[in-house]
């Protein structure tokens, strides 16, 4: 069952992502929202997440991975859709990601190729962007982008005459301390 990652999950999560050859930069940062699934033995079986940009309009999808022995059942698509839905719920209008190996997978979800420069301009504060800039890896990456649907307002009565509406509370994010 997919659940939000907690500080107690951080070491297992980082080991799982390293084994999947994914970036582990800034997993403990408040802007990084992560979820995971564990199998019956307690081992990490899958992960997904995103990093919301400082402007709140752009999200960097990251950490979408399924353990190799569990692939082929559609879990990757389910996890990616979950991250996209949560990013939209958090207010993002556009999703971005880096992927050198899985372009076909992301195209199934409506992503199209873009430039790493466009991604870096949209998410200049993203930890993965900063890491890739500092290591010179940014120009060797492949970037992808897609629009996110604007969440539909919940049905129900609106405010009465002269009443104000209160903004909905923002998403709860796990915050890890190392």
TrEMBL record:
Residues 149-178 are annotated as: Disordered. Residues 1-130 form the N-acetyltransferase domain. It holds the Pfam family Acetyltransf_1. Residues 150-160 have a biased composition (Pro residues). Keywords: Transferase. GO terms for molecular function: acyltransferase activity, transferring groups other than amino-acyl groups. Signal peptide: none annotated. It comes from the Bacteria. This is N-acetylglutamate synthase-like GNAT family acetyltransferase. The lineage of its organism: Bacteria, Bacillati, Actinomycetota, Actinomycetes, Micrococcales.
